[in-house]
Sequence to fold (103 residues):
Amino acid sequence: MTDGTIKDPETGQEINIEELIPKDVYSLVKHLIAVLGHNAWVYMGLQMNPLTKSMTKDMNQARLAIDCASALAEKVESFVDQKEKQEIKILIQNLQMNYVQHT
Fold:
């Protein structure tokens, strides 16, 4: 790991650490929205938790992840192009609809 790479625990492939670091704050916020979205799916019990390899359902954590992703989406919307804005909007809408359906 001294060569600037880490091993992906799921695939076993080497990943360059620099590729994991967002280039700017806008990219970081978009990444955080994606991470929060993934966690919302996990905590709604709709995706397997990659760390525990089990299904988890905790709707309080799912709601918090969705709310935080939505707040970040509002903050970054004026700094992303129309395509990215639409992708983020669709993600948030899908998360919210699934949350309502699974509560």
About this structure: The chain has four helices and four strands. The chain has a mean pLDDT of 90. The radius of gyration is 15 Å. The beta strands are 5-7, 14-16, 44-49, 54-57.
